[in-house]
Specification:
Helices cover 29% and strands 23% of the residues. The protein has a five-stranded antiparallel beta sheet, with helices on one face. The chain has a three-stranded mixed beta sheet with strand order 3-10-9. Strands 1-2 form a two-stranded antiparallel ribbon. The chain has 239 residues and is α+β, with helices and mostly antiparallel strands. The relative contact order is 0.18. The radius of gyration is 20 Å and the shape is globular. A hairpin with a 2-residue loop joins strand 1 and strand 2. The protein has six helices and ten strands, in the order ββββαβββαβββαααα. The structure holds flavin-adenine dinucleotide (FAD). The site of flavin-adenine dinucleotide has 18 residues, from strand 4, strand 8 and helix 3. The site of flavin-adenine dinucleotide (FAD) has 18 residues, from strand 4, strand 8 and helix 3.
Length: 239
């Protein structure tokens, strides 16, 4: 099998596909993921006084526990990275660079930031960006092979791929070697998530789920019938 690019080509007997949210080269895999866009802001560096005013001493990684949650970190140069909350699904599930920035989400994130850290009023944001997350319906990666075992794939990390893609790569190597290992025997390796339905059903289902999650956050976490049914089926949706 070969890969050809404007810069050169590579030939290989076996191929591991780690193409994240981009349309899989194995077509039947495409229905298992949808792109969900997630956005983040970063502040200018905080002064020692500003840092002391919020009492965040040990650089812990933080997140809140809402369905539509925020994640936040202090960077090495004392900025706060603040992201999450909105999870934007584009109709038709197309990955496009146009979606990498979303001013209305940035405004919302900034408002939430100052609600959390009122002491930092007046602090400015130096960076803002977003990206697509390869969301599958069960929140964790899935795996498989194609072309008589010569191609392996891993996708569907659903926003949790920084550590997990290393595990995913090991799974693909096991699959390509045709070996039965502790990893290949795992249920999460042997089973697939439910695929997403075609449009407009996917749009309607994801919209209803997002609306239900937002309502649950407003109602002390109480989940409506739709979310309870999804929970029972092991289905979910997240940023
Ligand atoms: C805003 C945001 C915040 C996130 N926060 C976290 C977090 O806090 N913690 C966490 O664990 N994860 C987080 N994630 C998810 C994490 O970044 C991903 O799960 C992880 O980077 C996936 O790694 P990967 O190797 O599978 O894919 P990538 O690193 O995206 O690599 C895939 C590569 O495949 C290439 N490619 C795709 N299709 C083709 C093709 N047809 N031909 C050639 N090349 C192709 C792409 O160009 C790309 O270089 C976040 C993602 C986003 C967008």
């Amino acid at each position: 099998m070969g890969v050809r690019t404007p810069y050169g080509k590579v030939l290989a007997r076996r191929v591991a596909l780690g193409t994240n949210v981009f349309p899989s080269l194995v077509k039947r895999v495409r229905a298992y993921t949808v792109p969900v866009y997630d956005y983040a802001l970063t502040t200018e560096p905080l002064s020692p006084e500003q840092l002391a005013s919020i009492g965040w001493k040990n650089r812990q990684g933080l997140g809140d526990s809402a369905n539509q949650f925020h994640y936040f970190r202090i960077t090495a140069d004392h900025r706060i990275l603040w992201g999450g909350y909105d999870a934007i699904y584009p109709f038709g599930g197309k990955v496009s660079a146009d979606m990498d920035h979303r001013p209305e989400t940035y405004l919302k994130l900034a408002e939430h930031f100052f609600r959390c850290f009122p002491q930092l009023e007046g602090l400015r944001f130096s960076h803002a960006w977003g990206g697509a997350i390869d969301t599958c319906s069960r929140f964790s990666a899935f795996f498989g092979t194609a072309h008589k075992g010569k191609v392996a794939y891993a996708a569907g990390f659903t926003g949790l791929g920084v550590g997990a893609t290393r595990f995913g790569a090991d799974v693909m190597l096991d699959l390509l070697a045709g070996e039965r290992t502790e990893r290949t025997e795992l249920d999460m390796v042997r089973s697939k998530p439910l695929p997403f339905p075609p449009e407009p059903v996917a749009w309607a289902g994801i919209g209803l789920t997002k609306w239900s999650l937002a309502r649950a956050d407003e109602n002390g976490g109480r989940r409506n019938l739709w979310l309870k049914t999804m929970d029972r089926l092991g289905l979910g949706f997240d940023s």
